[in-house]
Each structure stands twice: as C-alpha cells, then as structure tokens.
Write a structure and sequence with these properties.
Blueprint: H1 10-23, H2 56-59, H3 86-90, E1 93-94, E2 100-101, H4 115-118, E3 127-132, H5 139-161, H6 165-191, E4 193-197, E5 200-205, E6 211-216, E7 222-226, H7 229-234, E8 236-242, E9 252-257, H8 259-271, H9 273-292
Antiparallel strand pairs: 1-2, 3-4, 4-5, 5-6, 7-8, 8-9
Helix pairs in contact: 5-6, 8-9
Length: 293
C-alpha cells in the first residue's frame, strides 16, 4: 500500500475522466436545415408556430391564434329546398285501401245508364259509361241541308217569277225531302252510343233497325285511337280495336269525343279493374257521407 503522500495513479485519473465523459448527455447541435421542431421557439399556446422556422399557421392555415389565412377562398354555396306542389305530393300518398291519392285524370263515372243502354246490359256487369259521337259526325248532313236551303230557295223564287207553279212545287218538296233526311241523320246520331262496361265494349245504333255490336275486353289484343289536326282541335278521334288479328264488326269507331279520356278508361278497365272498383267504392262512400251530413 502506498503512502498518503504519493500522487494519485495517472491511470485511475484517466479512467475516471473517461467514465465522466461517457455518462454526460451529448448536447444536440441544431442546424439551419433541420426544419421546424418542438424543442425551441414559441410553445403551443404562445404563438402561431412551433419553432423559429416557418410556422404552420402562417403558411397553411392549420390553426393557432394568429393564423387567419386560408389556402384559398371558396364560395359558400347554399341550396334552396325543392319547390314541390301539392299535386305532386298527393301523387305519392295512398289512401286506406292502398290506392294512390292523385288528381283525377278522367271525368267522374256516370252512376246509371240511360234507358236506351240499360236494356242491353246483363245484371252481373258493371256499367262504366256511354258516349254519343262528336257533333262533327253531323257535318255532312248539316252542310247538305244548308246548301240545299240556299239553292232550292233561290230556285223556288226564280220559278215563282216565271209562272211555273209545278216546278216550284217540286223544288219545295225536294227541299222538304232534304230537311227530312237531315233530321233523320240527327236522330240516328242521337241514338248512336258507344258503351263501356267492366266486361265489354259495345256500339248501339239505328232507329228502326237496331244494330248492336260488342267485343269482350278479354279478347282485345290491340287498341289505339287516331286524331287528325281537326280532331285535335275539336277533341275527337277514331278508335281502332283489334281482336286476334281478325276483322270484327266493332273494329273502327269514328268521331268519338274526348278520345284521351276514353282511352284511359278502357285501358284502366282492361289492366287495372281493381283500381276502378276502389275508386267507385270511395266515391260511393263519399256520396253516402254527404247524404248523411
């Protein structure tokens, strides 16, 4: 063992210094290209940036009390609610029977057939309506009557001045005959009916000799209506019904009024008879409620 006056061993001193150097923390040297960091500079709450370098709030608008810039100003687009009418909403509603509640596309159905039509219906079929032909059906006899009146009236006056009473009488009788023929055509038009039931379509015409033609709805394979420019203006058309590609007595019916309404009724009766029954039941219930009130 050495004496206390001896100097410390040089090797022990060198080892102690090495241990001290190895255990000391190594200071971090910050360089200019290190970028933003979290250790130095303003803290999270003191300013808009995390370090001395470029701050997030000043460049990209990520937040902070001082960062009020945005990347770009975008217009704020506001959308107004769609304008939906009451009729459109009614088309999406259903009643208690499950049928859609929507504006009526056709006129109300008639309650009872006229005596002229009732005789051709049997008890188990439901009456849907009857239509007279459009007044355009009378245009030919009416024009003949008007022209005959002018011509024969002028002829009668001329013959009366010539003192030929016999020819004047013939002209007057001829004019009366033309008026009788026009009246016959008007009466025939009045008794001419197109009839629709839940089972068939019929055409009844004739005054002395009655003609009744009918076609079951189940046998109708094709149906269409045609309208000329005058027909579109005056609201009439010609219906063409086909059954199994064969010629039928009820194939073409001319001069029917309101062809679009009639077309909808026939098609609805062919493809949606339950809808017709539901509508009729609803109308009957409403009528009874009104009577009770």
């Amino acid at each position: 063992m050495g004496s206390p006056s001896e100097p410390p061993d040089a090797d022990d001193e060198a080892a102690r210094r090495r241990r001290q150097r190895d255990t000391e923390p190594i200071p971090r040297i910050r360089r200019e290209d290190d970028g933003p960091h979290f250790g130095e500079g303003p803290s999270y709450g003191d300013g808009p940036a995390y370090s001395d370098g470029p701050s997030y709030s000043a460049s990209a608008g990520y937040g902070g009390s001082g960062g009020t810039r945005r990347v770009r100003d975008e217009p704020i687009i506001s959308y107004a609610p769609p304008d939906i009418s009451a009729d459109e909403i009614a088309g999406l509603q259903v009643d208690a029977s499950g049928m859609p509640v929507q504006p009526r596309r056709v006129l109300p159905l008639e309650d009872e057939p006229t005596p002229l039509v009732a005789r051709y219906l049997f008890p188990t079929e439901r009456y849907r309506g009857e239509w007279k032909r459009h007044w355009i059906h009378l245009i030919t006899p009416l024009l003949v009557g008007v022209v005959a009146t002018f011509i024969l009236g002028y002829l009668s006056g001329f013959l009366a001045g010539q003192d030929v009473g016999g020819l004047t009488t013939v002209a007057v009788l001829l004019w009366l005959g033309v008026l009788g023929w026009v009246g016959w055509k008007i009466a025939d038009w009045w008794f001419d009916r197109f009839i629709l039931t839940n089972k068939r379509v019929m055409v009844v015409n004739g005054i002395i000799t009655r003609n009744v033609a009918m076609m079951p709805l189940l046998r109708v394979t094709d149906m269409k209506y045609e309208q000329s420019p005058l027909g579109r203006f005056l609201n009439y058309g010609t219906f063409i019904l086909e059954s199994a590609g064969q010629e039928q007595a009820l194939r073409e019916v001319k001069h029917l009024p309101n062809p679009n309404e009639l077309y909808l009724r026939v098609v609805e009766e062919m493809y949606e008879p339950q809808a017709v029954e539901a509508r009729l039941s609803k109308e009957e219930a409403a009528a009874k409620a009104d009577d009770g009130a």
